[in-house]
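Take just one protein record:
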Amino acid sequence: MAPPPAVGGSSERTPLLHGSSSGSSNSCSNNSPFGVTPQQLTHMLDPKDPNSLRELGGPDSICKALMVDPKVGLKQREQIGPNGQHYSEPFQVRREVFGRNTLPAAHEVTFWQLLVAAYNDRTLIMLTIASAVSLAVGVYDDMWGSHKDDEVKVGWVEGAAIFLAVLVVCFTNAINDYQKEKQFQKLNAKKEDRTVKVRRDGNEVEIGVQEINVGDILLIEPGDIIPVDGVYLGGHNMTCDESSATGESDAIKKGMLDEGRDPFILSGAKVLEGVGSMVVVAVGVQSFYGKIMMAMRQGESSETPLQRKLDVLAEQIAKYGMSAATLLLITLTIKYLVSCALAPEFPPASIMFSHFVSIIIEAITVVVVAVPEGLPMAVTIALAYATTKMLKDGNLVRQLAACETMGGATVVCTDKTGTLTQNRMTVVRGVVAERELRSRSDIQSFFTALPEHVQKLLLSAIAINSTAFEGPDEKGHIEFIGSKSECALLGFGKTCGLDYRSVRTDNKPVRVYPFSSEKKTMTTIVPADTSDSFRAHAKGASEIILRACTKYVDQDGQVQELTEKITSDCLKHISAFANHALRTFAVAYKDIGSSELDACSDDEAPLSELVWVGVFGIQDPLRPGVRQAVDDCHRAGVIVRMITGDNIETARAIARDAGILTKGGQAVTGPQWRAMSAEEQHAVLPRLQVMARSSPLDKQIMVQRLQERSEVVGMTGDGTNDSPALKLADVGFSMGIAGTEVAKEASDIILMDDDFKSIVKALRWGRAVNDSVRKFLQFQLTVNITAVLLTFVSSVFSADGQSALTAVQLLWVNMIMDTLAALALATEGPTDAVLARPPQQRNSALITFEMWRMIIGQALFQVTINLLLLNHGLDVFHLPHSDAGMAVLRTMVFNSFVFLQVFNQINCRRIQPDEFNVFANIHRDTGFILVQVFIIAAQWALVSFGGIAFSTVPLTASQWAGTLFIGMLSLPVGLFIRFLPDLSACFGLESAKSPAQQHLPEVSASRMRMESSFKDVQNSVRFFRAIRNAQMSRDAAHDAHVARLNSNFLNDVSALPSGETTAAPTTAVSASSSWTRVKKAVDRNGKNSE
């Protein structure tokens, strides 16, 4: 395409690098020490702008401006700048102008900033205010109030302990975020640890990708992933797959601009075939890939859905706590004022003020107890523990919300290659020249049985028509690199003695039509043995290649016409391979002349009148344990859908082997899916289990349609063009091995091993997190309601207004029972039971009827038992009615309250209505046991040595046994509560097994099986009915035919002359008799008449 005419009538624009700026946006800056600026170079790449390249004078002028000779490259130790200055560091001025090929560290946040971000929580701020007020009042009471004469000053303990709890939450959050960022940085560092070839000082050298500079001459080979942006300088047949950068699936041929080809090579592109060189024009944040990566960092993480629910709940609880505290404050104030008024003489102002301060402290204590400061800690501990364990299971959690969201996942859409399968393809079946390969072990005998010229033809086709090559992998092992299918074919050829390098050296391609997802074929044209002739080797999707064939190679190696019978046999083999979960690849060829070669277009390969050579079945075996993992998903009520680029037959077969495609399930192709309207897609979705020949757009549409049906969607992806679907999904899974960096940035969880089983592990941990938080929530609310009710009732109805538990004792209960209980209940790992129930609804209530039943039941029991103990304990335990006896009794009330919470924690280990064994797997729950041991030991120390600070006195062994027995009553009471009937409908609450809590598929697997079986019966009935009707039709036709014969016979007899009339036949001719029997009867009657 010719450049547009310049203003002023000139037919060509003067290249800007040669001095004229023309006022263009590409004009050079005088401040640049080089002849071109970074802005000019990047302007022509995004979007690709050939005119900008022309204005810069083309590749040669760019190289001249960048001070590089394409044949020599940069100097290995370039220390002299464009103006002759000498620099201490190599490439110093070049890197100052154009930058380094590195990206800024993502989210460079200090630990202090993470700590501040963790503190930015309304509940934590409210607790801080409460701790400050409590601390101020406590210090005042110690110094000038009712406790100024006490030996031990403990008024500060309440506020300090609350503040300590806030610090624990903040530090736990910050440490978890810090570790997560470090892990992700390590992962990216490993991915960037690779080398490339460049030309330096006229020699080819390998350098790390981070050492590439603008102006370097990068040498490109098949399989390379381009790390920088560049302009094509020269090469041979270079074709790039830029789908990972642009999302375009078609391969793009690279070449010079004057040839009409694309000269721009973008970072992130993969070289499919050919070799070449390019001059680097953009690195780091200036490159196409760098801009995408920086744009992906703009999103800010938000709090998790569970945390949002808990924030709302905490605010509601805090409001109730404030109401209770206000009511307590008013009630005790009025009660005290009335008692003062009724007293013989009014108390002095100092005593009244001290008493009012005590009432305020008690009210604040109620607020502190009521505010569930343990809730954010429980979520934090559960998520921190889960993400740490998930990393060991192969899941790197990038977004904390994904951990809990995965627990409610209802659908998982997964890739096939590498996720369900091992991505290690091998040829295991095949048919070449009408000879069949039945197993991998027979390859050599199969190959030697072929005619010699067919052997040569087959190996040439495999070696020439391929972009794969042999080289070292990341571990240094020599293996084939490139398309896995082509690697499988080259592996087959290597087993047969193929030296692909020598074949490629002897057969230089004339034309190459690379494989594209649209055409599903690849064609390479090379010179043939005879002069002025060429051979086009074609391979690709079997059904497409077969349709293009008119001839085939028979078992003797001769070319024959392709008959309908041979075509049918080929289709049977293709179908048989596909039904055995094999990917099928066909091989064909065609000999053409030079005139036909000249007539071939650059875009359309000569795919007509081909000669069919054969078809191969390539196996990509399932990963071990995939079938069990899919079954686990189905058992958990999660629907697994497979999305793959394979043909529909292979996709069905693999999905059946993996247990994804079940009886009654449906499979569609990507084109069929895109052709449907939104209504039709919604109608298909409940039974859709497999999508074949899919594109990244199909994934995006799939996620949208599923989310419109209130599904929680998990989606896997590995390419950059998968990032929209990964972002759109509720939980996006990227591949740690095969995934691009952009896909990882877009994802929520990275599968470090690319294995589907890791998704099931994430599902287990997600449900375990949700269960852990609910367990703690049930325990926390029980403690809070019990403490508030007990404090309120005992304070109001006691003669001196004293609560059953002192403020310090309540603080111990509040801190230890909240903080340590969060640690105990939030660190239990997932059990098999979490996969034995359907997922929760997206907007289900946080507290179910069963949880409320347990909370209220336990709270009423604990308040009742403590009040009974407080009022009748002196008589029950035979204690003296004195201050000393009352001190022992109050210590026993405190001890009993703590033991009630210890055993109620055991109750809260199981929250599902059908889980009655609260001791299940407790021997494996080491954290829970250690926490209980610590609480009991700390309680013994407080009771024995707490003294004035905790208002306790030592207890005897029998008194310890009595309080322990009272605490153990929580277990039988909890069991009794579990057996109470489900009255959720009466109270308008959600039961754990109600549709409001459980997400059930619109069409269950059992219903699909039943419908499929019903259709099978209908089809069988139709089949047998058709057979019966056909038989009846044949019998009726036969009878009609015989009737006509009989009628004709009688007519012939009646037409005879009277003298020749014979007697009428005496033998009856039935409608079912044959003409032979009729003839015999006529002859016999004729003889009798004679």
User: Anything to note?
Assistant: The radius of gyration is 42 Å. The longest helix spans residues 1005-1054. Residues 1058 and 1064 are 13 Å apart (CA to CA).
